[in-house]
Amino acid sequence: IIVQAVTGLMAVDGKLDAQGTPRPMAPAIADFATGLAIAWAVSTALFHRERTGEGQLIESSLLATALALQGGWVMDNPQADRDRRNPARERRRGLQAEGAPFAELLKAERPAGGGLFYRAFLTRDGAVAIGALSRSLRAKVRAAVGTDFLAQDAPDFDPYDPEFLARSRAATRAVEETLTKKTTAEWLEIFEHHGVPAGPVQFPSEMADDPQVLANDLMVKVEHAQTGPQRAVGPILRFHGARAATPKASPALGADTDACLREAGYSEDEIAALHGDGVLG
User: What is the mean pLDDT of the segment spanning 89-104?
Assistant: First the structure.
């Protein structure tokens, strides 16, 4: 949570509670991504050792990973930032100096006005997400939901202009109301017909039985010593001609102690003595 706060991940995510306090992302995204980065680095280091006979010192940090995950937000590009990000930053700093609430700071840093085509909408029985990042895709969204609002494609697009913001909010409310009149399945069919990138907003607990997950064999069966059979997420990578070993369930505390000691060179008598002396539980 500290890394999310310090690196801007929490602010970029933009979730606030009822009091306007920033909330952390639910997954520990910087932690998980750092683990993946370390695995890739180890593979690279082993390859380097095979070719050169030299080892490698690998260094990583949650800070570096969190910055990499939001590269476009962090990078400094004076030419591109001049008209958009720099004015927003200065407005936010001014409000911050005046003691404005965090919600106002967030709004100043990330002005509204163009988010109609890249967000989730409530439907009659759930929610659906739309991701239209190009002009051609936004045109398809307009055709699918029946709006003529151009948002960032408008010649007068200005997320800081009160008149434009008022039009944006009105158009957004109209689209929101339209989406609530049909079910998620109905809208997904409409979006597919129009070529709109869209998907249902689902819950993690649903994913183990998701048709796409099952079709791609992304879950594996494991047997836990205490809780019995269960299914877990399998390896994220596959290689032609080689299959990763099936993951094992988490071992009970101390289950591998003797094996680790044998690997470290302890004899059976020495291990038994450690158990007898109460050194090992």
Answer: 89
